[in-house]
């Protein structure tokens, strides 16, 4: 009897030790595969405190930036949402026939590419798409364990404004409603992401959890308390509120996206009062989404998931708030190309800043490397993990494209060509940010810059991608 009891005790001890070892192994495996919280913000320009601005109230983004690596010279590869997102998620450059406009689908433009979420899913990650990640919610469906989007009904709080949108296609460009944050889409999004975090806390799988924030995209709708943070009398039009004759006409557009909204004139400059109302609304929306992102980051910390979770936040492109008398994106000025990009890597980032030129196609190989994975051959970007590790970047250029316009960013020079299907340029502009950060004085046609233009034109073709003209 004693021998049998002893035998059972030993077996029990073996199973217990085995279970402890197995649990420890699982924890070790998970610690080697960090979670990723992937926050994509629509139309967010780098007009934030940690980029030198001091008028937009965004305490949660400021706090996250203080724990992150801040990229001061990050650029989207194409300044329009659908194309920018597809390019980023595949790590592939836009070409003349790939990733063209807002209505791009990754599955149609580059179906053979293994996207970032698909790579992670294939390697044991739980992948959840919340909100706007691709332009279309069902795009790249095989990459996700779950896809969730809030009803578009909640773009507006007032029923009459929603009905107006249904009738006109766009509706009013602003709405001020004294309602709870959760009435609008991004408030509902925050609650969904928080619920996901609580569920994922119980899982042994690493996760790739996304938060696709809708604002500050038009319409500029946010709860009244965020509008009340700003005094419209203190809002001014941008210093670059001009369109010099030396700049090619191809550089400008009629901001058709905004023109579709009610009470917006169909042509010409906006009345100053209306322009300031739109800027006010943009600021209010940034403060609103800041609060929603803050709720998610607080829950991440409360659950003790922050210690093993990479947090990356990016805006899909820049946005014009009257810069060059333009609104929206869809252009090759820096205001549409430069973007906010910050990444928090536990144990490595503490609010450092880098002026290394970074492209959005670099995000894919970076996150793959941090997850211990090799990027597929279709990825054209370059990992910026060395920068995270404190090393100096050896890359000093980026290429961005919108339709016929292709821009080479080289050190402080911004060179753009508008080209035909054969790659022949029919218009050019060149700005030197050392002396002209607002991009007012086009140098491309000045005789003294002829050699510079020829060298940049050649380099542009070397760097815009092997498949660019295909």
TrEMBL record:
Domain annotation Sulfatase N-terminal: ranges: 34-372
Keywords: Calcium, Hydrolase, Metal-binding, Signal
GO molecular function: iduronate-2-sulfatase activity; metal ion binding
Domain of life according to the entry: Bacteria
Annotated GO CC locations: cytoplasm
Listed InterPro entries: Alkaline_phosphatase_core_sf, IDS, Sulfatase_N
CDD domains, per database record: iduronate-2-sulfatase
Required cofactor names: Ca(2+)
Annotated family: Belongs to the sulfatase family.
Name of the protein in question: Choline-sulfatase
């Amino acid at each position: 009897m004693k021998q049998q009891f002893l035998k059972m005790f030993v077996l029990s001890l073996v199973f217990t030790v085995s279970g402890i070892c197995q649990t420890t192994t699982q924890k070790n495996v998970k610690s080697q595969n960090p979670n990723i919280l992937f926050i994509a913000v629509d139309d967010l320009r780098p007009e934030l405190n940690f980029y030198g601005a001091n008028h937009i109230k965004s305490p949660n983004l400021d706090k996250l930036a203080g724990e992150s690596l801040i990229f001061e010279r990050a650029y989207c590869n194409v300044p329009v949402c659908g194309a920018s997102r597809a390019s980023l998620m595949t790590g592939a450059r836009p070409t003349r026939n790939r990733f063209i406009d807002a209505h791009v689908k990754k599955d149609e433009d580059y179906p053979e590419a293994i996207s970032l979420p698909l790579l992670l899913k294939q390697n044991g990650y739980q992948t959840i798409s919340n909100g706007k990640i691709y332009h279309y919610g069902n795009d790249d469906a095989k990459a996700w364990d779950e896809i969730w989007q809030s009803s578009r009904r909640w773009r507006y709080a007032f029923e009459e404004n929603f009905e107006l949108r249904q009738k006109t296609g766009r509706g009013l460009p602003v709405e001020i409603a004294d309602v709870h944050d959760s009435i609008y889409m991004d408030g509902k999004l925050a609650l969904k992401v928080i619920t996901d975090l609580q569920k994922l806390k119980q899982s042994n799988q690493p996760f790739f959890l996304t938060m696709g924030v809708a604002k500050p995209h038009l319409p500029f709708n946010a709860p009244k308390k965020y509008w009340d943070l700003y005094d419209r009398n203190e809002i001014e039009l941008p210093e670059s509120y001009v369109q010099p004759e030396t700049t090619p006409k191809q550089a400008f557009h009629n901001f058709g996206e905004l023109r579709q909204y009610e009470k917006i004139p169909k042509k010409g400059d906006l009345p100053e009062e209306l322009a300031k109302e739109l800027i006010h609304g943009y600021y209010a929306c940034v403060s609103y989404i800041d609060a929603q992102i803050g709720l998610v980051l607080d829950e991440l910390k409360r659950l003790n998931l922050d210690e093993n979770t990479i947090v990356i936040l990016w805006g899909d492109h820049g946005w014009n708030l009257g810069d060059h008398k333009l609104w929206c994106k869809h252009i090759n000025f820096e205001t549409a190309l430069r973007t906010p990009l910050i990444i928090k890597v536990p144990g490595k980032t503490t609010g450092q800043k880098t002026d290394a030129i970074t492209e959005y196609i670099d995000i894919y190989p970076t996150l793959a490397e941090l997850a211990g994975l090799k990027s597929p051959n279709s990825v054209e970007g370059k990992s910026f993990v060395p920068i995270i590790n404190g090393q100096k970047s050896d890359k000093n250029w980026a290429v961005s494209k919108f339709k016929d316009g292709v821009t080479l960013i080289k050190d402080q020079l911004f060179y753009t060509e508008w080209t035909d299907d054969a790659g022949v340029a029919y218009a050019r502009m060149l700005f030197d940010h050392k002396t002209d950060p607002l991009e007012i004085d086009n140098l491309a046609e000045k005789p003294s810059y002829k050699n510079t233009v020829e060298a940049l034109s050649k380099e542009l073709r070397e760097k815009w991608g092997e498949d660019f003209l295909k």
